[in-house]
Amino acid sequence: MQLLAIxxxxxxxxxxxxxxxxxSVIEGLAVAATGFSLLLASHIAYTVSVSGPYAPxxxxxxxxxxxxxxxxxxxxxxxxxxxxxxxxxxxTKKGIVGFTRVKQYFMLSNLFTVAMFLAISANSxxxxxxxxxxxxxxxxxxxxxxxxPSAMEAAWKYLIINSVGLLLGFFGTLLYFTALGSDSGTDxxxxxxxxxxSDQLDPLLAKIAFIFIxxxxxxxxxxxxxxxxxxxxxxxxxxxxxxxxxGALLPVAFVIILKFKIITDASVGAxxxxxxxxxxGLLSIxxxxxxxxxxxxxxxxxxxxxIENAGIMAxxxxxxxxxxxxxxxxxxxxxxxxVILFLTAGNMLLKFxxxxxxxxxxxxxxxxxxxxxxxxxxxxxxxTPPFGIFLTKMQILLAGMQTYxxxxxxxxxxxxxxxxxxxxxxxxxVFGDSEADIKPxxxxxxxLIPPTVFLGIIIYLSxxxxxxxxxxxxxxxxxx
Amino acid sequence: MTLLFLQSLxxxxxxxxIFLHLTKRNFSASVAYGIQSMMVxxxxxxxxxxxxxxxxxxxxIFTIIVKVILAPLFFxxxxxxxxxxxxxxxYLNVPLTIIIMAxxxxxxxxxxxxxxxxxxxAYHQLLSLALASIFLSLFLIVNRKGALSQxxxxxxxxxxxxxxxxxxxxxxxxxxxxxxxxxxxxxIMISTIFxxxxxxxxxxxxxxDMKNLTD
Lengths: 480, 215
What we know:
The structure holds 2 protein chains of 2 kinds. In chain A, 78% of the residues lie in helices and 0% in strands. By secondary structure, chain A is mainly α. Chain A has one domain (2-479). The radius of gyration of chain A is 21 Å and the shape is globular. Chain A starts with a helix and ends with a helix. Chain B is globular, with a radius of gyration of 18 Å. The relative contact order of chain B is 0.16.
């Protein structure tokens, strides 16, 4: 029932937004819709932790990991929407966007959010695919939001690469249906039905299907070498959208890969999918490390950090064992930290009117609070102790040390390079000489509240896990 | 429908992709896509004859409306609006393109792909040709410099995949098919809007003119 309410709320908010001409009403509707959806998502997550998988109808099925991701989508979309209201008002003040663009922004972000909710809760792989495709379609116009040639180019690249990737994912999805035979007598193919029939799947076909799935949904996750759209899209989309793409969409697509992984594992054993995940994971970390050192754009740098963390998650699930609990925790930490970093990047962009690293310096004296958030965000995302990501990275690498010591060693080396690269760029931005013509001071309280709240959350979660969340992570570890 | 007839229809679908690789005219490419989609309609009709599921009639109607009529019309309107009679060239020259197409077709018929092409042993040849169509469509997307050709390439890839799943007997639910076709309709609408926007910004649909993302 809660899930249906979430869908209805967003559809109604979008429909009303398309009709009204008051900016405040559109903003209010978006905040209210995401706020209510956060409450409902929290209720769903709590219900799953207490009573197990939540399946209000045959079309929906929310297990422990999906419940975690639903909570992530709910909280990030609410924070991003609250921030977006203040952010877009500042942009309007500067003459960057007008009413029509703002209206388009909130309508599309509503649709994007509901598509993510549907994708993660869909009980059918085809329905999940349709919803993921819907996320591509709703975000394409958000990436081209500023209507500049570079933004158009990024959006086009995003549309084509993701569409091709998802078509390959679609092909892979349907290959799993061979397990059902031609007379399975059912029209509705659920994840559970595929899992129950996994022993009927030709092992070679299961392997081919998983490769297509990993390429297809891996494109959406941004695993190398299918990542090429990501730095362009993240850097050209409005900063709050970067937070939603990196923090919410990435885990949604990742969980869908994992749902196929358990079907594949049931058919051919875990070794095959684990090795593939390790290869793609290490490749992603390596690529991010090699590119980040020479990054010139801080939003692109965050995109590469997202590729690195997708790689770490792939490694974690590839290593298996104790690494899985740590990886799920890492997924949560990464999403929260990316919100802090992207929203802070938005504050920098508003103040300095540039996303180039060499054009942003001395931020500490101009926007001290945003700078503090940026520094802490950098420390968290690179795995500096005592924050939670330090522990999750170490646990993942320890899990790998037993079976894949070389891979773990290489991953550690590249994580070190990423830390140095990040440090180099962040220090240049924060401590350099400040521009004389930029007026010191933050642009608004509401531009600071959402990232600060998320900072509080990640610090809290670094030291303690609420029982319901611990139950969900433990349950998810048992399943995946 | 007899196997020979189905083979002929699949061959037509395959030939439309080869034509899409070689044609220089956007109008012909749009028509070729319409013809290709019509072949998919025939495959759905064959599926309907084999498994008389009345909902498949709905799928057939939706496919005709979206892929055979609306999509080519969208493209032709776009071509007229922006005077895009000729499409931009390919990255590889014609002889090299033909050699790669031949290689990909050969690849699809290798024994290595038997797990895929033997899902329904009776349709082995059809599945091999559908797999070759998938490979050629992917190559079409990467080899063409024109944005419109890339769109048609993506749609051709979708047609090839649908053809494959029909012959492999994997089209489980008409409802699912309708959902996918609806998705394709939205995709076509959005991508054609993007084509117009790209033309407005770059003055051409040549994707090599897009050089703003140099970081």
